[in-house]
């Protein structure tokens, strides 16, 4: 009988430890990710802050409400890379789906740009906003993407006041709306991100 009680105590202790570890892991994953002082220079995929100082963080309902104002939609999602084992005798035709009307700047969320890339980025944003630094601009990518956070931060640091960050990105959009195939922005395509 004492063996049975001992076994039950060990099982109960193991379950209690497992529950505590699960609860601790949940707490850690929900921990606040602090905003970096400047642009994020770490891996582009991972937990992101819930805030972007100087910008408005929006969800799908907020974006839907903003759409009648014709915001500039900046998709900074990466271009799909050709798999190394892709057959050489087959044509590589990747597609990129995004929010209708978005301008796609693949890789424009990188922390560092060459001077020409940065100039191209800001010149195109100025054209897209028609020189109005208060015009609503929405930066997005995929969930857990620092690239869209960096793009928003870069715009805020440049003095744009209508910046909106949509961390749910294209995945959130597609839960309620159709996405369309788009090509890289014409100016950005000639200055691809390194």
UniProtKB/TrEMBL annotation:
<feature type="signal peptide">
    <location>
        <begin position="1"/>
        <end position="23"/>
    </location>
</feature>
<feature type="domain" description="Rhodanese">
    <location>
        <begin position="67"/>
        <end position="182"/>
    </location>
</feature>
<keyword id="KW-0732">Signal</keyword>
<dbReference type="InterPro" id="IPR022376">
    <property type="entry name" value="PQQ_CXXCW"/>
</dbReference>
<dbReference type="InterPro" id="IPR036873">
    <property type="entry name" value="Rhodanese-like_dom_sf"/>
</dbReference>
<dbReference type="InterPro" id="IPR001763">
    <property type="entry name" value="Rhodanese-like_dom"/>
</dbReference>
<protein>
    <submittedName>
        <fullName>Rhodanese-like domain-containing protein</fullName>
    </submittedName>
</protein>
<keyword id="KW-0614">Plasmid</keyword>
<dbReference type="Pfam" id="PF00581">
    <property type="entry name" value="Rhodanese"/>
</dbReference>
